[in-house]
Amino acid sequence: MATLRTRWLAASAVCALGGTTGIVNGGEDSSITLTTVIERTLAANPELDVLRFQREARQGQLQQTQARMRPEINAAVENFLGSGERSGISASETTLSLGLILERGARARRIAVAEAGTEQAEVETRIRRLDLAAEAARRFVTVLQGQSILTSTREGTRLFEETAKAVAQQVAAARAPDAEQARAEAQLALSRLTEEQAEHELASAKIRLTVMWGAMAPDFATAAGDLDPPPKLVTYEEARNGLERNGDLVRLLSEKRLREAEVHLAAMKSRPPWRISAGVRHFENDGDDALVLGLSIPLASRELAEGASREARARVAEVDARSRALRLALEAEFYALYQDLNHKYTELETLDKEVLPRIGQAAQQTRYAYDRGRYGYVELVAAQRELLEARLSRLATLAQLHQHRIEIERLIGSPLGGH
Q: Could you count the other beta carbons within 10 Å of the beta carbon of residue 105?
């Protein structure tokens, strides 16, 4: 199941694309929704298996770190098989002792580092899930665009079929030369070729979508949703407020906690662990026993401790510097994406209010004039091509608009709003 952060992406995109949930009308005529696409991706994407194993490895490291140092049993035999009085074992001394290492706080510091590493692995997984959800949404939009393009090219083929019939009638009535019929039939063949290409591109888009959940054959016929109508555009400041939730910034924050824990661990190098032991010694020559106590205190290396602390502090400062650089890069990227998105809204409005109505009207008038012999075939086909190209341009603009929204939502880690 999708996490909270990926559910918002599914919900916001479903609202934007007009989808429902699940697979509708199962079988060969089934349609898949964006919600199902994201849920399948987050449940079965192969990349998530890699992250799962990495998290398990981190958990294993944490488990090892949490384990306490076990005591050591030491046995030693001295003063035997020598020379003179010590030629045998009668003068030997046998010592049996139990040793412990006093870590003096180092274990707690190691656990803190391991816990920070485990948290970082969890954060990495959440971020990657969000990235995969966004990529699945982008590919879903591409399928929707491909479906619309195929519909548009089929309409274009029907239009050129009608044109070819009209030209044939004009040629039969001796109002147009035979060459125009040949050109009309050639144009119809090209239109059918374009339609076939659109079919192939849609099939490829479906495959690219299904591999998101590790499949190679789609079990759906269509993507359920609509690129129209586009969501409303929120203000720049409203959208920008979410940049602090950016996944890369969250990742750096988690990394900073890890580096800070390493600073504390590095400080322990100035306090190396002590080793204490206690046992009993048996003297073979007189059968006496005696207790043995031992304490081993390593001499700390000041240079080693200072070097380790210096390295760890530099790692923390490095993360801070990367965070500042990332914030600047995110600001620039967000600004560019928002401006592109704003332009797509303007472009779509211009196409809807100024371009398409006028081109459509011009195409109708050109056809009317052609039927009455006032325009030639060149003018007729040019008007029809302009209409088809304008429709395809609108589809491309709509798809890019949704793609920009998805990318901005990925950057800010939440819905863009304005649905």
A: 14
Alpha carbon separation from 220 to 215, 231, 263 (Å, rounded):
12, 26, 54
Length of the chain: 419
Asked if pLDDT for residue 64 goes beyond 70, the answer is: yes
Do 342 and 400 touch, CB atoms closer than 8 A? Answer: no
Q: How far apart are the first and last CA of the chain?
A: 24
pLDDT grade for 109, boundaries at 50, 70 and 90? confident
Structure tokens of 115? 């816990």
Beta bridge partners of 281: 95, 290
How do strand 72-78 and strand 93-102 relate by DSSP bridges?
antiparallel
Question: Quick one: 217 exposed, middle or buried, by C-beta within 10 A (0-12, 13-18, 19+)?
Answer: exposed
Q: How far apart, in whole angstroms, are the C-alpha atoms of residue 17 and residue 11?
A: 10
* 8-state DSSP, 24: E
- What is the Cα 25 distance to its own chain's centre? 30
Angle at the Cα of 236 from the Cα atoms of 341 and 128, rounded to 5 degrees: 70
- φ/ψ of 99, rounded to 5, equals -115, 145
Instruction: State yes or no: cis peptide before 229, omega within 30 of 0.
Output: yes
Phi/psi at 274 (5° precision):
-95, 155
